[in-house]
Amino acid sequence: MTEPLLSIRNLKTHFHTDEGTVRAVDGVSLDVDRGETVCVVGESGSGKTVTAESITRLIPEPPGEIVDGTVRFDGEDVTAMSEKQLEALRGGRIGHIFQNPQGALNPVYTVGWQIREAIQLHDKKAKDKEARERAIDLLDRVGIPDATSRIDDYPHEFSGGMKQRIVIAMALASNPDLLIADEPTTALDVTIQMQILRLLNQVQEEFNTGIVMITHDLGVVAEVADRVVVMYAGKVMEEGDVYEIFENPSHPYTRALLECLPGRGEKMSAIGGSLPSTTSPPDGCRFHPRCPYAVGDCEIGEQPPMYAVDDGDHAVSCVHFEPGADPSVVLGEDGSDAVGGARADGGDETGGDAR
Amino acid sequence: MMGGEDYRDRFEDIDWDDMQRSGLDSLTTQTAGFLASLGVVALLLVYDYVVVANDGPTFTTPFEWDVTQLDWLLVVTLLTVVFFAVYPLYDNPRMSRRYWREFRKNRAAVVSGVFLVGIFGLGLVGPLFIAKPDLNVLAQYQPPVFLSVPESTVGTCVGPVSDGMCHGTWQYPLGTTGQGKGIMKSVIYGMRVSLEVGLITPLIIIIIGTAVGTVAAYSGGIVDELLMRYVDIQLTFPTFFLYLLLLYLYGGTLFLLIVIFGITSWGSTARLVRSEALQRREEEYIQAAQSAGASEFWVIRKHLVPNVSNTVITNASLLIPSLILFEAAFSFLGLGDPTVPSWGQVISAGRSDIDTAWWISTIPGVFLFTTVLALNFVGDALRDALDPRAED
């Protein structure tokens, strides 16, 4: 089996603060292949963003530190790279897209300057004129109308959706193999969200790019994901194929998340309680204080290992799925109430792309 | 939030032709031009110190100019201002026009600006063509032109005398001091002094303060701690006494005053810049630049510094008048450069004759007052023009 494009193994990113060590990411493993979209979902504060930033070591060190685990990108260990190598990797083979396009563009430069910066930081030989042409090309490709003239505009002259397209253009400047999109649509209004997701999809099809998408929006997950990783309090709770996750959610947390999703035609319910302290997380399963199915075993020892569900790569970190245990405690008697399954094929009814 | 498509329409009636691109290439032109000019200055400096005889003037044509240490410093300062303040404005006419539109709203500032350009322009070129005011006991206490004083006040009246009154002449348009120095010339030389104090010292302060402030804010941790504790120490350090000490050891020169105050007074600027930069560094575009593969230096230079420039310019607009006043106070107390006729010195020279020859102290005093006032007006308007948050 060939090695995946990105392979994170047992990643632990901690922040050493005055209040103690914050275990933002505490043993996360995930793989991303070329041309594959992996969505990392979870509540705010579950460690999704820190996971994403750890991939290119963007976390501030100190106080942050990758204390354990490996991040292998295309066979190379990122955690062992020098600052110079990392700079070549960031924006070179790995592009970042940020949550808030208003903030991700520097207000004092034209968008053209910023895209050329992204190009020339990695292609030192690119002349200004050539870089400018490539920048126009990129703007055109991400669907900015009239790119030739708009390239000299300042960020405040673009709307939110346009800004996010520009941010994507910057991320694409060096034809990256992997895109890390940290909640790319959260700050955008709903009509623009779908356009941006389609744009990402087009880019992926064109260049066979791997995408790590961080989101808490399960609607977005249903739209774009190939595989889903559900995170909670720095741990992976469940991972698997997007259809499996939506049709056969196994971890009580995943099921609770799906129940929070409006528009399923069922009663919505919020998850009671709140995220546990990341400085002193509870023993056993991190979710047990909020879990309706918690038993004595959940409260002791470590987070349960990933147990396979059915077949394939669907796995879940829950004691009820330990071989020999009875998963119907969580799943109910019929074992297959398809929570939110209806949306797994995506809300494709929204109109066409801007182009 | 608006959809991208309808938003576009609002910009279609903009005249795209007058748009000029500014960016990486122009920045390199800027740096290249600056370095080339510095190179020329360095060559001239070598020429001055190696080839030209010790006391001889550096240039003889078209005018005689013995370039002093301070002049060299002023030339470098002017180059810096031209390449890093004027050139970007020229290069980006659209932004410049916007700033101008905002600036123009403040009438007093526009008038002040014109006045300052006149004062500093004259201070810059005047001393090249006008000889230093010299002692002349035969021309003491001459009144300014159109004014007259009793002949008894004046030693020998240069101008016409009628009814026992000595009238001023065009030879000394603003009168003379008790030593017979022409006040007009003194005032013009004083403009040069104010220009030097008001430009070189703030520039030194701003360069060091901005560098320290942004690096401290960006790096955080131990670097921040060390730099800021050093600033604390420096802020408690009595620069005034250091200057006095050096004054007694080496004699008071304007060069010493400017350099000492430049390299010991950047502490508060560094603190201001740091506090602004701490906010800016949390902005997403800083992280975006990092994630695009920019090095630490690049992020600080290209992303952090331009975004704290409003704070820096506001700070400079406060620094300049206070430093000019400071120099005047030093000269008034006799702690300045005795060879340089600064405004403070002339004011001081006339203070015992205020009853009979009021013009000696008053005229440079008026210049000092109006210059500082004008600087404050301009600074105020600049602050409004450059502050993006003040936009309507």
TrEMBL record, chain A:
CDD domains: ABC_NikE_OppD_transporters. Its EC number is 7.2.2.11. It is found in: Cell membrane. Gene3D superfamilies: P-loop containing nucleotide triphosphate hydrolases. It is a peripheral membrane protein. Residues 327-355 are annotated as: Disordered. It is an enzyme of class 7 (translocase). Residues 6-258 form the ABC transporter domain. Keywords: ATP-binding, Cell membrane, Ion transport, Membrane, Nucleotide-binding, Translocase, Transport. One of its GO terms (cellular component) is plasma membrane. It catalyses: Ni(2+)(out) + ATP + H2O = Ni(2+)(in) + ADP + phosphate + H(+). Pfam families: ABC_tran, oligo_HPY. This is Nickel import system ATP-binding protein NikD. It comes from Halogeometricum limi. The lineage of its organism: Archaea, Methanobacteriati, Methanobacteriota, Stenosarchaea group, Halobacteria.
Automatic annotation (TrEMBL), chain B:
The chain crosses the membrane at residues 31-52, 72-90, 110-130, 199-218, 312-336, 356-379. It is found in: Cell membrane. It comes from Halogeometricum limi. PANTHER family: D,D-DIPEPTIDE TRANSPORT SYSTEM PERMEASE PROTEIN DDPC-RELATED (PTHR43386:SF1), OLIGOPEPTIDE TRANSPORT SYSTEM PERMEASE PROTEIN APPC (PTHR43386). GO terms for cellular component: plasma membrane. It is a multi-pass membrane protein. Keywords: Cell membrane, Membrane, Transmembrane, Transmembrane helix, Transport. Residues 191-379 form the ABC transmembrane type-1 domain. This is Peptide/nickel transport system permease protein. The keyword Secreted does not apply.
